[in-house]
Amino acid sequence: MSEGFNLDDAIRKVPGFPKEGILFYDITSVLANPDAFRYCIDSMVRLYKGSGLDAVAAIESRGFVFAAPFCDRLGLPLLLVRKKGKLPGRTISASYELEYGRAEIEMHVDDIPSGGKVLIVDDLIATGGTVKATIELLRRGGAEAVGVFSVVGLPYLEYDKALGDLPVRTLIEYFGE
Ligand code: AMP
């Protein structure tokens, strides 16, 4: 196990991407660093092993990368939350506000476990808008979101306001520039 790892050093920070005024926390530098990536997956396993999850819903696309090895380690079904138009089967969709305009996400409704407890996984949580829309999809599919895991949290963007009492676990938090 990789205790005491300095994850901050492994995250690339890119000011002005994708537009002026945004500091982008880039996790591709974590993926390119096997020790950092293993630390993330080990930490997820430590946090959720034995917690009674039935499935994991991973948000496109960086959430997939963390959720897939985690699901393999814990033997859990992996459900993909994709941008509209990518999934070939029977879907349900939800749209939500972005800073500019709206976005729409979808899930394969037949893969959602009825009455199941589902963990939502993404790389970074900011306003919580994407996660909130995912919670809604799971609810409509007959499952319950029981928690959120994100490698990076930006609490100053107030994701807690969007998510109410749902427990959110992150490995590192940033509090503005
Ligand atoms: P939100 O719905 O506001 O919580 O935004 C979360 C989604 O946007 C995640 O899928 C992130 O990958 C991406 N995102 C938002 N802000 C940033 C940021 N400052 N750096 C990197 N990714 C971000």
Task: Please summarize what this structure is.
With 177 residues, this protein is an alpha/beta fold. The chain is built from six helices and nine strands.
Characteristic key phrases:
single chain, 7-stranded mixed sheet, alpha/beta, binds adenosine monophosphate, 30% helix, 6 helices, two-stranded antiparallel sheet, 177 residues, Rossmann fold
Report on the architecture of this protein.
The chain is α/β, with parallel strands linked by helices and 177 residues long. It has a single domain, classed as Rossmann fold, CATH 3.40.50. Helices cover 30% and strands 33% of the residues. The protein contains six helices and nine strands; from the N terminus they run αββααβαββββαβαβ. It has a seven-stranded mixed β-sheet, sandwiched between helices. Strands 1-2 form a two-stranded antiparallel sheet. α3 packs across α4. The model has no long low-confidence stretch (mean pLDDT 96). The site of adenosine monophosphate (AMP) has 16 residues, from β2, β7 and α5.
